[in-house]
Design brief:
Blueprint: H1 3-6, H2 10-39, H3 44-53, H4 56-69, H5 75-98, H6 101-129, H7 135-163, H8 170-187, H9 207-210, H10 213-231, H11 237-245, H12 249-299, H13 306-339, H14 344-371, H15 376-404
Amino acid sequence: MFQGYRKLDPFILRFIAAEFFIQLMNSAWQLIYNFYLLDLGYSDTEIANFISARFILVILLSLPLGLWLSKRQIFPLIRWGMLAITFAAIVSLFATIRKWEVLMTISLVVFGGGFSLLQIGIIPWLIRVAPPKQQPEAIALHFASWSTAAFLMGLTLWSIHWLETWQMSKPFILGTATLLGFIGFLVLPKQVMQEAIQPQEHTKSTIMEDFSWRKNTVAIVPQFILSLGAGLTIPYISLFFHAEFQMPWHDFALMGALTTLLVASASMASPIIRLKYGYTGAILGTQTLGVLALVAMGFTSNLANGTLAMILAISLNMIRQPLFNMSWPVIAEFTMTFVGKKNHVITSALRSTIWGLSFFISARLFILLREQGLSYGEVFIITGVINTIGIGGYQYLISIWKRSEPKTADNAALI
C-alpha cells in the first residue's frame, strides 16, 4: 500500500510536511473556535455569519487567479497563501478577544483568501511536478496530511484537558496553534521545482479559446451540489453536538481526532479503492454510503434515550466523514482527467470558486433554516437530499467519460 508513497520526490514530501503544520493550526481553529464564540455569547446564526466571511475572497479571487496562473509558476502563490493564513489568524484571534467584530470579519475574509490560494494551486502543482504514475499517491498524501494533522491536534487537546497538567484557555490554544502554522511556512521549501507548464496551442488566442469552458462547466456542477451539502455539515458539526448532546469542546476534540484518523486512512486507501472499484465505486459508492450515515445521524436527536442517541450520533459521524473524504481525492483526479491537461489550473480555480461560493450559500441557507425553527437533524436530512442530487450528477459525468474514453489497458480498471 505504501510503496508508491516512498517513491515520491523529497521536495514533494517536504511540501506535504509544511501543509501538515498549516493543518495543525487550522484543526485547532476548527475544533474550538466555534466553542470560543459560544463562550463569548454569540448564537449559532451569528457564528454562521462569521463562517460565511471566510469564503468571500475565495469567490472573488479563485477564477481570476486561476486564469493568471494557467501559464505561470504556481509555487510562489502557495507560499503567499501560507503566510496570509498565519497572519490573518493572529489578527483574527486578537480581534475576537476584543470582540471587534469588523476586524474579526476582515481577518476571517483574509484567512479564507489564504486558503483559497492553497486550494487553487496545490493539486495542479502536484500534477505538474509529480510523474503521472505518482500523481494519485501525491494527491492522496496531500489529503491525508490534513486529516492526520487534525487527528493529532484533536488527541493532543483532549489529552491535555484530561491530564490536567496545566489549564489552558481557548485563546491560548488558538495562539499556540497559530505559531505551528508559522512553522509550516518556514518548513516550506525555498527552492522551486521545475513545473511542467502546458504550452499554449495558439499564442494569440483568447482565454475563451484556450480553455474548454463547456467541459469545465459540466465537470464542476456536481461538485457545486456536493459542496453545498458539505457547507451545511462541516462548519456546524460542533454546534450540532453541543446543542443536541451538550458535548464539551474537549470531547468534541477527541471525537474529531478519532474520526480524522479514519479519514486519513481512507484518503491513503483511495487510490487502491479507485483501482479496484473504478470511479463508479470510489465516487458514487462512498458518497452514497456517506449520505445514508448522515441522514441516520440527523434522526438521532429524536431518540428518547439521550445517551444511546449520542453514542449512535458519534458512531454515524465517524462513519460518514471518512466515506465522504475518501471520494474527494478521486473526484479531484477524475475531474482533472475529464477536462484534459490544458484545463488543469483553470479547473482547480473553478473548483475553489465553487467550493467558496457553495459554502457561502450554505451558510446563508443554514441561517435561514435555523431562523425558521428547523432542528440540526432536519438540516442534515435536507443536506442528504442535496448530496443525492450531486451523486446523480457524478453518475451522469462518469457515463459521459465512459463513452468518450477509449478502453485501453490503463483506464479499463477505472470504469
